[in-house]
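assembly run, all chains below
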Amino acid sequence: MRIARVEVSRFRGWESLTLLPRGHVLAVGEPRAGRSDLIEAIRRVLDPRIIRSRPSPWDVFRPLGESEDDGSGSPSHESSVSLALLELGAKLEDRLDGRLELLDPDTGETIEEAELPTGRLGIRLQYTLVLDEEAEQLDHRLEYMKSGTRVPRGEHDLLRAYVVDGSPPLQLRPEGFFRALAEDLNPDALIEPLRTFANDIADATDDLASSDPVQAALKEVANHGPTRLLNLDRSDPASHIGFTAENGSLAALLRAIQPTLDLGEAGPLPLSLHGSTTSAVFTAAEASVAARTQGAIVLADDFGEHLDGSSAEYLAARLRRQAGQLWLTTRQPEVLRAFRPAELVRLGRPAGIRRQFQLPATPDRAARVRQRYLPQILGPALGAECVVLLEGPHDMLGYLAVSHRRFHKLNRTPLSAKGTRFVPASHSGGDGGKHQLPGMALLARQLGLSVRVVLDHDKPGADDALIQELCQYAEMVVRLPPRFAIERALVVGIEPEPLRAALSAISEEHELDLEIDIIDDHDLSDVCASALKRKGGLHEQFVHALPGSVVPPMATNVLEQLQKSTPDKPLVTLEAP
Amino acid sequence: MTFVPLPGQDLVLEATEPVLAVLGGAGTGKTSVAAALVRQELEKRPRHEPGSRALFLSFSRSAVSQIVERTTESFGPYANQVEITTFHAYAWRLILQWGHTVGLSEPRLISPSEAKLFGASAGITFGELIPNALRILEIPAIRDHIQRRFTMIVCDEFQDTSDEHYELILTMRGESRLVFLGDLNQCIYTNLPGVSGVGPNRLDSVLALSNARRIDLPDVSHRDPSGLLPAAASAVLNREFDHAAVRAAINAQKLTVVHRRNTDDEGPIIAALVNDLCSEGHSSVGVFSHHVDATAALSDGLTEHGVDHDIVGLPDAVSSALISQFELLRFAIAPTGSEQLRQPIGIFITSCERGARPPDLARMMVGQLEPPRLLQDRLLELEDDLVRSGSVSTVLELIDQLPGFLDLPRGAKSWSSACAVLRSIIGPRTERPKHSIGPDDLDRIEARIRNAQSTVLTSSEPSATAEVQLMGLYQSKGREADATVVVLRASDYFGREPEPMPNGSRLLYVVLTRARKKTILLVLGESLPGLIAPLADLVLDN
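ok done. output:
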């Protein structure tokens, strides 16, 4: 089963959203851009527990805005989530025969006559929440969009999604996910073991209660008042008193038993004592099994919060393989590797309004190759508002070091605190990165990121075509002054004394064998700039080696320019200090 | 209930071929063995899995009701996994569900009479149901879905399937096993207008399907275990009227032939025969009469002589009456114009008459012809009475009396059947002043009536069965009763085929094999058509 279309109207923080997934969905994006609200919206339709519980007033989009008149004269506000579901599988299609519609497999909409041969069978469901403002009354319902009839409980259960949430794994209690798995293959087979379990506990409790020490103690307690006050049998007052575990309720007994895990010398320990990562591994594994048996839709919000990057990637890949459709939100960039670029949905808030972005399908091979390397190049920046693209890793390390130094020494807010991330176009040094910049800028733009670029200017006039291309996608292209590259941007403008001190420090630490004392002040910048390129790049180390609160002025100019608002014309060429 | 197969039937249950053509004479147990086969097939499959259903297709609602009666017990716990329906009802269901995909967003089924009076553009006619269903099944996703739905499709009376019926089965088939039940001797629909491909060559097309097998059930009737009636019918089929089997059936009083030269007192004669049969202890009596108009007239006659009965196969007249009555009610509450009630009454009048052209009276009602003064006055008077009436029950009384008031020549029984349905739909509102019925109430009533109309036209639900059922000769196929009265008139038209009159003989064979215990052949009039003349002679010999 898969969702082919999601439409959300005035639900939680989404005033409106239309999303057409292309396969599985990995939702990433800025904080407060609606990842959790998206998963919650889908749960409103596919998690039967929701419609059976009380609706929440916080599901209504705020501010409430104009109310609608529903005919009763009382002002009301309506929120809705509608889904088109396709690929239900032969069994579900058979059970839901009368509910089926012919839908467009790409858009989930009812099909146009010309497209009939490509139509697929599916159903459309709508969750509606109505807030009656005056009566302070909330009502919600789930309906088939085709007929407007309510979805019966039995049918809703067939359509349920598996929700990977914070509840503990391996729970045998009735509402547990694990219990459902144990019952899935043969619901009747578990009845007998559960009955035996309850009886055994009751027997063991009776045995304990009838033991001599317990009986003796009971007798003593009974004789201190209860026998007289409660009219107990004087010859055997303890016979009136028994014991039961968890009030004799099987559900409570099952809640009381918790999984243990034996991972070494300490022997079996309750799972909860093994730490959140271990529990998270089991939680994801349960969902994976459930998805496999049902081909179901799996929803996981903030996946990988308690997992390291590679475990998160591994478990996400497993879930993706098993689920009919996996909807996963995450802040872990590594999880991106488990998905295809087309499955990525980035949520952003350009101009304060929530929007969703997906990479367009493209026949262009180069574009597809670029999309495939997306995780490596843009992954860490997808949760930011703005990405600053740099030519290579030295640029990034150098500017980041300056940014940190400004924060620590001068208390200047770093760009990262303003939702901006640096990303190098190439992970190796050298010139290759520069030509990747336009493709990356385009990718970033397609995903709704604001794009700014910092360019060297070591060969004036050579990059005109590149700049022209970049200006199409980037809102700001910051170019260093003529004959400047990152190295000069880090050293030019620093007084000879601190420059000499920093050079001396890295020379000593990295065995550069420089005779600092004989270098003329006039040549110092050039020597320093050359030295930064040695040993695979010493940019970061150099910045950290600067004494006191000295920060490179040219690099500072770059950082300050990047914090300015969007210029009318993207290209900004800085002046030498 | 365990089904104990008789010789021949066991072959059907043991067969593994994907396509079976099961042939057997009337009453040889084709339906029963097919039901047992369906159950056997369903038992093999896990419930609630796709394809754990079977479809039983037949031609008429009446045949379907009988299949339901005869098979429900055999299906046992699997009964709700078997859909028993008519070709047209199945097609209508497909159109209701998927019609919007082929431009039929709000499909409205119009009655044959409506189409006859106003032309077919007003909606989907009966004849368009299957072609439209086939159009829907051209859509791959829908076809695939339908093809996965049934593990077995049983087609009853397959010798009468037209090309489009047969195409519908083959299109829906997918991997389903097909079982065709039939009897070439009962092939009586070959000359129906607007139908193509009906004939004995259908068997050839079935047997040409891959791995098809033909199984002939032995010629022993389970309907009449004495075998006397089927044997006599076989002799009549071969036009051997002096055959010993015919004589034996007459002597055993299984077959009685009555000839009356005077045709004026048809109603009382048949009423008397039916009453006799009932008092002899027969718990169900079927009365078969030629064609729609004669059947409608006979129905009125039976009513007049106190024989309570159901009409089978006149649903169009009943549903047209129901619509007319609703419009009369609506007119009484919210009159808009004369056409509001004249049009539906015109359709009702059309529905009670046979023929390709609408009757003049109907055309007068809808303004296609100038009505005579008297009729105009009556209609105005009716409108006046309706508008002036105070309560719903007064309106219903006026409606009840309409056939007499307008002096309608036919359809009194259909009209009163429809009145009963209308009363039940209106329910407790009957006692209210008419102005308390608001537009919403009217909409609700109309929705239920429209629904009832399409149910009447296409339903596969068995209708309430009375002890006495009246139907046309052609509708008798597939039905059975303890006793039957077959009415054959000098005025009935049986075609112009020369001896040995194969089509007409097959019709006689069908009507003579419907009774479990006794058949009365009532021949009326003089100068009898060649087909039935020898039957009247049997009386003289008697």
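Chain A has a mean pLDDT of 91.

The interface with chain B takes residues 90-91, 93-95, 97-98, 100, 102, 110-111, 113, 116-117, 119-121 of chain A (CB under 8 Å).

not gonna interpret more than that til we talk
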